## 1
Amino acid sequence: MDRIPILKIGDVLLVTIQVDMHDQLAAALEEDLTGRIVAAGARGVLIDISALEIVDSFIGRMLDNIAAVSRILDAATVVVGMRPAVAITLVELGLSLTGVKTALDVDRGLAMIARSRAAQADDVSD
Amino acid sequence: MAKPAKQVVSALLNANHAEIQQQWLQRLKADGVLQSGRIREGELQTQCAEFLGRLRAALNSGLTDIDSPEFAGVRELLAEISAARATQGFSPRETALFVFSLKQPLFDALQQHGGGDATAMQEATWSIGLLLDRLGLYTTEAYQKTRESLIVRQQQEIAELSTPVIKLWDGILALPLIGTLDSARTQVVMENLLETIVQLNAEMAIIDITGVPTVDTLTAQHLLKTVAAARLMGADCIISGIRPQIAQTMVHLGVELSVVSKATLADAFALALARQGRTVTRRRTEPAAGA
């Protein structure tokens, strides 16, 4: 079965979705990713969906789920590179993904994760 | 045996067309067509002569059905005249009057030259009435069509005009909204904004609603959708320019904009700059040299 590769950069996991997602693939990704977060002790997850052209409510919910799960595992999830058409579709579907952080591109996503970790570190040191 | 009514009408027009045209023109003038100054007498005269000529030709074919191919010339001319009048600013009444005022001259001519047969007269009268009514309706329809196409074009122009996305600074966009926000416009606005966010790699967008006259629950929902879509792409939105009355209405309606909002575009811009880690300061004035 196809799997979506998960890359590890430092303590951040990078997932680039380059094929059209079908439900099984999405479910497999969710499972793989949660496993990798724990195994690698990742502090952040970047999901790059700049190549994703078609979304449905299932994919939207999957993104939301991944974000919720990784938050529990203490890793910040940032979805980057969403296309305008995809954003409009998700909003029209009523999925605003309020629990998910978003950024324009991978660079900014990494910066965002670094910032949130710095903020956490501040909290601890206080 | 009396001639059929159609032939009576066509014979009448053929025999008296100069007189009818003269009377028609007088009647049009009496109705004040020329007073508005939108059309010159010469032009009106040409239109009348041309119309009567084509009508005669069509009637000579022996038909009175204005949808038939023989009447194509008449229809074409009428459509042309109506379209011209619609753009010249004539009212629908004035445009329809062009055809309807031909009735009286035709009836007059019929009375003078139509002979004494009461049944034939009645039939001819009915035939003229029917023909001119149809032509009049056709004129009004053509007038209406021209106006409608005008309105559609203007709507398109307004839609194009009113949704610019402006780059205020590196990574900061402004979207000044002007006019009522309906679903169709929101769609255009949203697409424009999102496309520009991608193009310019912008992380902040300021939606200024100073030019939006009213904000009801639907408009607020449209705004929120736009904000949500921009957020999904990774750009933050600030809403600015909410006028005091609108703020009151929104609170009374129970509309809640769960977005950062600022009173003016300037405030929103200052906030956007601050979020980027920039500050605006006045340059210290240097003492003038040699003073």
## 2
Amino acid sequence: MISVKPLLLLCAVFSTASCMGAAQATVRVEPANLQGPRALEKQTAAAAIRDYLQSWQSLSAALEQNRADLLNADFVGTAKEKLTDTIKEQKSFGIHTRYVDRAHDLQIVFYSPEGLSIELIDEVKYDVEVLHKNKLTTRQHMSARYVVVLTPAEVRWRVRVFQAVPE
Amino acid sequence: MNSRLWLLISGLALATLQQVAFAQGMSMTLPKAIEAGSSFAIQSHGSGNATLYIVCPEQVLKRDMQLGETAVFAAGSLTSAGHYLVVLTSSTAATNGTLDVTPGKAPAELSFLAEPSRLPVDLKSGITGAVYVFDAYRNLIVTPATISFELASPGGSMQKHLVVTKDGAGWTGMDSTALQGTDTFVARIGQVSTTRVIAQVPGDPCGLKMTARQVGQRLQLVTAPVRDCRGNAVPDGTIVTFTESYHGIQSTVDVPLKRGIAEVQMPVESGATISVASGVVLGNQIGWTK
């Protein structure tokens, strides 16, 4: 379980940089509320959260530049396929989107018994801009509850499921 | 029921499920939530040309339309669950709304992780299984669902656990049984199932015992058939170690099991003590005198 002290540390460490400006997303990590028999080490939790937050930067860059290759480091499986499809659709429609995460409220909810997946819930606040032929169509502030499943790769955790669910 | 009353109730129900977004000279009426893959419609109001965008990291749709028209999206148009931003723009104005696409209710796929693929017999909670439940569009179904985990052992016994998923995930632990062989581990929900195969191998040797007899100037040492505590034959190739100690000297020979037994010849030394072991399991000890 993540106690209060490490929680503060995590908040400091996990401030994520915005790709559009100096603003950084605030990050709050709730104590893990795990189902499953496997104990979650602090280092494991910290690494999974760090890699998940990094994935927002990749997602943002990939959807803004319509470049699926920018997803490779942080996404795998279904999440990567769906985001790649989105980029294809954006290209075909002549649009691109700019996502900037503003705040994350995270909680790890499942660590599978064999250690091969971590599930977390993220109450995320973000800004989204839709640009059509480089002309801004809209800019909106959004909030969503994301369910995320991460699986370990060679040296990092990668996002395998990335899905907003009704709050 | 009175048909007018029915129409009124239907209208009220519809109003709670829909939302209206306004901007100068234009507006749209859209559903608050739909199920992934289902058909839906967005009614626009106003006049002139407009473009409708439905945007989310997981999927994007765009449609040119005339204000006043209803944009009808056929089943299968919007398949990725997510929280979508819906934007209707014209040359002079734009209006926004949101649309939640929820995962389908019917499970179509189970992602099933079973560990380990091979383990000794008779281990309590030695086998674990974890599942994630997906719909036909590979959306994680986060509403609680009951998973049946079934482990069938070679002897015909069956362990069955019912587990309710939370946030799309569920897990269980199972015991390996007394018989070596191949277990079938199934995770099932409705008509959807995924199977994994688990090999149960014999445990450590149990009651390791050898006998000795003199053959010329050598001592012939032979184990009884080596079995685990449940009577399963320990596999050939398992190393058995014979140790002979005499006058402060120690000789050790490692022998692989062959046809279930291990045998070796060692020098005959009066007063020698001979012991047998396999891994951390000690067998009997023999004191040899001429």
